[in-house]
Amino acid sequence: MPAEWAPHDAVWLAWPSHEELWQESLPAVQEAFTALCRAIVDVDPETGTRQGEALKVLVPTAKARADAERALVGLDASFYDCPFGDIWLRDTAPIFMERDDGALVAARFRFNGWGEKYVLPHDADVSSAIAALAGLPTVAHEFILEGGAIEVDGEGTVLTTEQCLLNANRNPSLTRADIEARVKRAFGASVVLWIKEGLLNDHTDGHIDTIARFVAPGVVMCMRAESEEDPNAKVLAEIERELRAMKDARGRLLEVVTVPSPGLVEDEDGAVMPASYVNFYIGNRAVVVPTYGVEADARAVEAIAKVFAGRKTVGVRAREVLEGGGAFHCISQQQPTPLAARRGVHS
Prior knowledge:
Layout: E1 8-14, H1 19-22, H2 26-41, E2 54-59, H3 62-71, E3 78-81, H4 89-92, E4 95-98, E5 104-110, H5 113-116, H6 126-134, E6 138-144, E7 151-152, E8 157-161, H7 162-165, H8 176-187, E9 191-195, E10 212-216, E11 219-224, H9 233-244, E12 255-260, E13 281-282, E14 286-291, H10 297-307, E15 312-317, H11 319-323, E16 333-336, H12 339-342
Parallel strand pairs: 1-2, 2-3, 5-6, 8-9, 11-12, 14-15
Antiparallel strand pairs: 1-16, 4-5, 7-8, 10-11, 13-14
């Protein structure tokens, strides 16, 4: 699996349209989705042409298509009639991989609604539908895994969490050794690095893409609490400590870069939400960082921008998206540029 900073041909997304799920938050979620798309596409203001990767957007109904086409006008997006349960394509879409000859395949995993907590119609079928729409051969893996549960460096290292991959609600018949062997085989990896647990109230059971992200070979980013009042202060300190002791597949001790934590972010009922700045999306031209209307937003975006000097770093409000369970990395799935086409491309 190529690292996310490698060139992409496209990004797969699903237009937020389920009023029964999003209710009064739907307009704000659509606004955030549109801002994400605009940042990814990065239209040249002089020529009006797309500079970033292509948008491939699932739409479940004729009304959703019309709404999406209107919102994304001028972004050269492609729309596909395809039913889905909700917009979390990081977890329901296939994961695009490279064969030894450089051609792409769509890796499909079993999906059970994040441990049977949120089982929605059509979500289990999205991976096969997108693989068919992309015109790619598929490799089906007979174990449960969501894309947000793994993070790769493109050089043979997979980062994940025990809380998710070893959870009895995913693959209860498999041992840790079984799961590690299957993850290595599925992602072409030689090393699996295990973080113990993720953020408080994370309905995904500790997805890695909310706590630690590879940002370059040998370099991983995580968050640091700025106050003991941060509900994740202890777990974030433990995550940083664990990462600093890890070596990647090349034998390098990981370089750890920290950014601020958002701190306490609550929903309208006063429940702590798993807000994360590292749930960003790395596009060809831009890194899109979720923000939450809190004091640390600007400093986090600035800190992330220093790591991605060759890309624009854009902060986009994601508080309403987070109320649904995630942020921008969670709702996107990149389709890498095939290796043959990448040769000579500077990433």
